[in-house]
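[User]
Protein folding is very new to me. Any chance you could explain this protein sequence and its structure tokens? I have pasted everything here:
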Amino acid sequence: MLTYSQAFYQLKDRLKQLYDADEAAAVAHLFLEFITGLNKSDRLLKKDTLFTERQQEQFDAKSKQLTKGKPIQYVTNSAWFMGREFLVNESVLIPRPETEELVQWILENSKLKIQNSKPAMEGVAGSRERLRVLDIGAGSGCIGLSLARLLPDAVVTCADVSKDAMEVLKTNIEWVLTAGEKKKGLDNITLKTIDFLNETQRNKQLGRYELIVSNPPYIPASEKVNMHKNVKDHEPSIALFVPDNDALVFYRAIAAFGKDHLSDNGYIYCELDAGHAEACKVLFEEQGYNDVEIKKDVHGNWRMLRANGLKG
């Protein structure tokens, strides 16, 4: 049996074939926490503790997956987003910090709008219109379920083309919306398995919304060869890549859909490919949206778009 310390250094050295030293160490620490249930500090205090037989079996089997390039989140079937643990597997994208920034931007603006809204029913204190939200290409549900949890008046529809992704999302409804608190929002989630690029499907199955949000596929297919193998070999291509000759295909569909399905003065939010951010802004402006804004993430990349549906 290996000790905690031996296991860490053995795995870190093997991961250096795939990652730089710092990232290799970070992945090794996450994996050892998954195996032992102990954080980095606690393992350091018990560095000479031997694995149990079960822990050794897990280490031997799953560390091989890591050294072949499988992302740690898929090995542990877990990723954290907006303070909640989400189930993930190779049917859905791994939630990323940049997408958290998009959700934060939505929350800042939506909460301000809620605070300034008038009651929906006269004489009923605190009564408001429900905020109808559509999450296009929902995947694990990290965006839609976070909004359902953090916006008290939200009624959320999550749409995705993948039936396998929908199975993950169903699990996450329970994981995320019941974690450490009273059940919240379970009756306010609707799931739709549709091909959003099919105009007939989307118009028939989807309704009208105050808020439409999407982190759609946006990476040109030709860029796949330059991506890290843990992304291109494991994350679902259908959620990542678009044709080289039509990188804006999903944004064009979202803009067209919003013209008939976005409520007066509603908003569309999208995550962007930095290389096409300005083109997306122009696209929404040409479709008649007001106050179209693009925003940088913490790394200085143009990563988010917001468009107001109130026509001028």
